[in-house]
Design brief:
Strand order of the largest sheet: 1-2-6-5-4-3-7-8-9
Number of strands: 9
Strand content: 15-25%
Shape: globular
Structural class: alpha/beta
Radius of gyration: 16 Å
Amino acid sequence: MRIEEISIDSKKYPQKLRNIYDPPKKLYVLGNKELLNKFGIAIVGSRQATQYGKMNSYNVAKELSKNGVVIISGLAVGIDSYSHWGEIKAFDMNWNSAGTVAVLGSGIDNIYPKENIELAKNIIKSGGCIISEYPIGTKPERLHFPQRNRIISGISNGVLVVEATKKSGALITADFAIEQGKDVYAIPGDINRKESEGCNELIKDGAILVTSYKEILENCIEK
């Protein structure tokens, strides 16, 4: 399977992404590019996830995928990884899963973090897709990750923040989603845990509080 280059002028370029502020001029895509134009929910959160966060991201991703929703995340450790694995579980169970998209902050040939190389392989095996705006050979750099978050929200129809501290990169994704006119969902957490502060603040600021994947589906149907 080869990496495909898709320029912003191409008919293959995802329309949702073309509509955002500062869309990438080119995408590098490995896997099922059709997922980029399907209905998707981004699931993001803390790298230092608690068991509560891991369980919720995994289960919500699995159930949404079973119901035809593409799962989008960033292949980071923590919430991102469990979201991708939840969708892959739905695929492994032959539940007619929708697929998952991983957006990288490096070239597709430089999977980061290295511990998620196996996850990346499973994403492709399960009919998913890995994308980046960075050319082949680009190494991961700190500034790339906040920048790639606009793509995570850009190809989604909404963003779910599962768990986040006040300074979490997941909140950057939520800000991009708000700027792009996308729905932002948040799972409430323990008021005594710093990992829940970001989500609880999002809810106070107007994010849609969800305690079940069904609430996301219902909101999507209403629209």
